[in-house]
Fold:
Amino acid sequence: MTIRSAVVLAAGEGARLRPLTKYRPKPMLPAATKPIIEYVFDALVEAGITEISVVVGYGRTHVQSHFGSTYRDASLEYVGQDKQLGSGHALLAAESEVSEPRLVLNGDQLVASRLVEDVRTAHDDGDAIATLGLIRDENVAEYGGVICGDDGHISEIVEHPRDDRTYQLNAGVYAFEPALFEYLRGPEPQLREYSLIDGIANAIDAGAAVRGVTSDGIWIDATYPWDLLEVTATLLEHADGVGSSVSADARVHESATIVEPVAISADCVVGPDSVVGPNVALGENATVGANAVVEDSVVDADTRVGSGATLIDCVTGRNVRVGPGSTVVGGPGDVRVGDRVHETERLGALLADRVRDGGGVTYAPGTVVGSDAVINAGTTVRGTIETGTEVQ
Amino acid sequence: MCGIVGYVGAIGGNDAIDVVLDGLSALEYRGYDSAGVAIPTPEMTVAKAAGELSALEETVSRDELAGEAVGIGHTRWSTHGAPSDDNAHPHCDEAGRVAVVHNGIIENYQRLRDDLVDAGVAFRSETDTEVIPHLIGRYLDRGADPEEAFRLAVDHLEGSYAIAAVVEGSETVYAARQDSPLVVGLGDHGTYLASDVPAFVEHTDRVRYLEDGDIARLSADSVAVTDVEGRPVDRATETVAWDAEDAEKSGYDHYMLKEIHEQPSSLRQCLRGRIDELEGTVDLPELDTIDHDGPIQFVACGTSYHAALFGAERLRTGGMDAHAFLASEYASDRVPVDEDTLVVGVTQSGETADTLRALREADRAGATTLAVTNTVASSAARECDHTLYIRAGPEIGVAATKTFASQQLALALLAFELGDGPTRGELEALRDIPGQVQTILETTDARAVAETFVDADAYFFIGRGYHHPVALEGALKMKEITYRHAEGFAAGELKHGPLALVTEQTPVFAVVTGAGETARKTIGNVKEVEARDAPVVAITDGTSDVARYADHVLELPAVDDLGASVLANVQLQLVAYWVANLLGRSIDKPRNLAKSVTVE
Structure:
């Protein structure tokens, strides 16, 4: 029986992407100009999936209002997960919707339809209770790994493996039989969370058949805010990505210079003598003022880059006001996330939703500005600036 | 406001009972208090019930009627007679051969009824509609064929109507339209009839709109449209773009909340391609042929009237002579109107009977007419000289939300188009509005305010200038969905009477933005309220010191007057929504109300 339906897990915040996730969940952050979860939906639709249940929680209205009740040829149904108690709990929230085998995907990682198709075909052809999409990736310790035999039989599944056995990376693309729900529930969840990985491990321990299929389609995860720059550059360059494009509903002044690849969304305005690109994504209704320069940056919806400003290696949230003549000089820089300092990352500055600067502001490499912060004209800022503060 | 559905199935088509009941269900959002169906073959079956559609489903057996190809159905909202099984449509003649459903009002029904009663006809209901099947029955008795009998009966009627009729044993639906919308759908599996496209859009998107005076005969594979004398008239087949899926709730508890959250994207649609920041222009090519410097009159009802008040004020700010009138009072107020007048009808549905009537009066007086509407090919759009679409997308909740915001922006664009055009600052501010509405949705404290005041005795809303229509609309939203007493006032009017109602139990919502003369005066009125110990909720951008006198603040970003009016309204929509939600009200279908009011 060919699987036609899927569950997409999109209820988590994605705390490592703070402060960008202050108001919306990671699946709605922009990869180039589209929300991350839209690539997941695309992969599903292209693989022939026609019914998608989306498990939503943190910032759920963003997902619901952006996509409504259909996406391309697929119907979208939303299932609320009120408390974020792990991926297994999220899937259980959709249990009443599930009566036959289906795909389960993370909504916050970009996958190619190839990977989705491979998992579905392998599951259709086999008798496994669960089939996992795998890729060979050196960063397996950052994610989850499996030990998978040549026959596709998975004998072990491990979160953040640290030993030197040969793991393949669990890409978060699964096909499940309804019977897997029993394993998601028990025995006892660790740390009061129900993890999908624990559920699969329970199934393996009980002797149920769990298989893996290795694919070489695109799989990208943005873990930290600066990863959005790399993700965007990759998507703009790759044939499988989004390609370079300027919306017919954007206005680009004839004297502006567009250095491809770029993605410029509907309602954007690019002013005279500005330079935009390469590797720049402008979200819906963004504005680049006269003589401004924007390079290797992700500028989200409704943001205004003032006249004569310069943004290099910059990530902005929505509705940000970069004043005239302000400068983000570009990375690399040391970035503090929580208690950890990431050294020499390629980040000029991160300006979260609704940051306002008065113009003539200089951002030292690696600066992170929390949402709703106000930076007065002529200031030089560095390090981390908390949400809602005013910098004199 | 009532809904009509009809179907004549082709061979291999659906069961009529299924198409009709599903069609009625698709029209449910319009609001109703009773519903009914008639299937005329093999013998006439009529079922009807007061209350929800589920009550009708219980009285009718889909199984027993399986295989029958013809039917009509109706959801009713009372104008004559209380909601009851008897007063529900369809209505029949005495012999039970004819069944009729009807929207609108038969103005001469009392005289027709008296004549029929004199002739010995016994009436079963209090409705105006029942005269129609009796008239048809009388002509059938005299030997007329069904089509002739229908035509002769319609010829007696005065008033507004959309009618569908079936005759026992006949696989035909007859229809007539006068001042009340009817549309025919042409599908592969039969021919459809409805007062509104969503009733059959899942079956076909090829439609013919009937015009006033049209009589239609629907058969399984075609529709014949004639005038009242029986001469054929040609009505073009159009394709409607109406995504039925849009009409689902997308994970929200209510359509209203979904539609409140859709405002950023509706407003982007409203502005798209119409403003150009590089050139500094607003361009509405559909209005290029309006060359007008005379007086401008807005006509509208309900929420649209509040948008019209706002629009008129925008135009006056642009130096034009503009005023807003209640459409239902327009004729009786004897408003002077002539060839030099531009009359702008603001109607979400484009079918609002009062507004259409006022536009027709204006048209007769030689005025230029402009429809500002959300509904493509609606009566208003088809009848007016010009149309400006607000592009808000389908709105299902009976209480208008996103369409009000889109009306505000569309009317602001109209003011720029007819006036001097925007400054760069005004254009920037316009482009910022969708994102700022999103900000409010993400940061609002409306739910907490609603929780604080859910048990209040009454709610008052005050505003001045651009914020006066916002205060009126805030109160209307509160009334519509909470069933609580709410009033909106021009802030300065409070002390001229309404202040007597203000107590510790009546929160006053004050819209105050900026720090200019208008804000200072409104703050003076806020102090009057505060002195009576009434709780004050300030809706403010924080520029003035109004927060010092307020118990609660609903914050707005710092914006110009236009943006502030749009944004303040969003906060008040959310307060009304949460109060109604806490009270457990029927938010999407409030009692006694209908989405589109097609009677005067």
Remarks:
- The mean pLDDT of chain B is 90.
- Chain B has 17 helices and 26 strands.
